[in-house]
## 1
Amino acid sequence: MTKKFLHTDKKANGVNSKSEFIIPDIFELKSRLVGLETGTIYQCGLVVYTGLDLSPADIFTKIEVKRPNTKIDKRQAELLLSNFLIQLKAAKIGKKLAIDTQFGLIETK
């Protein structure tokens, strides 16, 4: 789908924030961004180039490895992740993005 992804931004999230990829909260189905590995809530993230073509299935695989006991409504999560990746594909690398109440990515400063 895309070779771009959202990553934590130490300038926006604090110097002590973990360096990790972030996704919409598919675990609680809330319109916020969370760390893929930790579940930490983030206000925004930075669009980065990964070099790998990523799909929702790739993200599910990563979640199963990093958070094996996590329960997810896969049908709903796949829709959210597909929409997320489509929006990321259109975003420019280096832009800082947040998520709105409708799970849309919006540019922030």
## 2
Amino acid sequence: MATALTLLANTFKEDAAKFRTYGTQVPGQYGTIPAADIGGVAAPLGSFYTAWSGPMGKAVDGLGALSKLLGYVADGAEAWDDGVAAQFAATPGRNPLDRWIQQRKAWDEWLKTHPDGKPKEGETAPEKPSDQPPLHYTNTDKNGVTTDVTVKVDGNYDVTEQTVTITDHGTTYTEHTTYGDNGAYNTVTTGRDGSVSTEKVEVDGAGRGTKTITDKDGTTVYTNPNIKDPESPWTKVVKEPPYRPPIGGGGGGRDRR
């Protein structure tokens, strides 16, 4: 839509330029026509062109601004879609690692009462998991978009590092996240345009969190009194402007007594 509006704005701009060229010549479909050739119609046409040149110019400016705005919205929506897709790909219960962990727990429980792993008559044994957890998987959807996920785990099979790459017809979006204690993490995102942004969450012993987001627009900091509470909000930290004493004094001076 942004491209269509740009084309429309250019058309309006060209028409507005035609409106301002009247005088001895009147704009036509394929150039200009001498005013003398159309007699008394030339003057009314000239007035019409003059009256519409101003509104047409404003329409051009408005369409140009709207085109840029829709372009920004499209870029933001694309980044948001990629981020949602990356989070969905790594959501617990939707990836092979989580399924393997659940199978491992079920199998361990089964072995407590069936040391040989074999079911008794009338029983059905749970599915035996593989010896090693799946740490990499990939999927290509019907639209040709490929999602690739690689994870690293600790001795308890908790994820310590994760990389999600989405490849969409020649463009690539990547999120690389390292996880710390108490919900802390650090994510580095590389967008389809090659831009890099970071999101870092630090958590103290009391569960208070500080989130720092750095992207092309700068750095923004948020705080949360309790990140373990899903209802606890992240609040943006507003920087106070530096104090500047008024011109001509007012800042006080040293006490020379």
## 3
Amino acid sequence: MTTHNVEDKSQKELVEIVKIQEEEFAKLQRENYAKDAKLSEMHRLIEKISRLLAEEVDKYGGQECEFRHEIDELQQELQAERQRVLVLANVVESAIECMFSGCDYNALDIQEACEEAGIIVLTKYDPSTHGDNDVDAEKGDPWYEYSMWFARLSNQLRQQAKDAA
């Protein structure tokens, strides 16, 4: 083989390689254009979704704030109820601890524990409010009654038990 033939063959191979690379480059460019087009379309969709979301927030934003306020109030009520249940648990726990240690947990102990826990409150006896009594209390005498929260809780629990029956 002559040098001239080798050069012609090498040149043909180089031309062929260049042609293949040009085709691959053109293919990559087409793919890149397609990706750019998809990317542009995605950007348009994101802008449209953002615009629609902004409209929805404008439209329903006040309502969401109202719900947030209601949720906050309910969470506060729930926290208050948890505190009340904890108070009751503490009273019961102290009575049980007394019992376990051999103490005599009498009515006065129960009354003091309930008053300290806010389960009962001291007021003045009024027959028109409190009705008849078994201890011969007269109008204006010291009188214990359930605190508002305990009376409400007690009534709710009784009603739930009644409804469940």
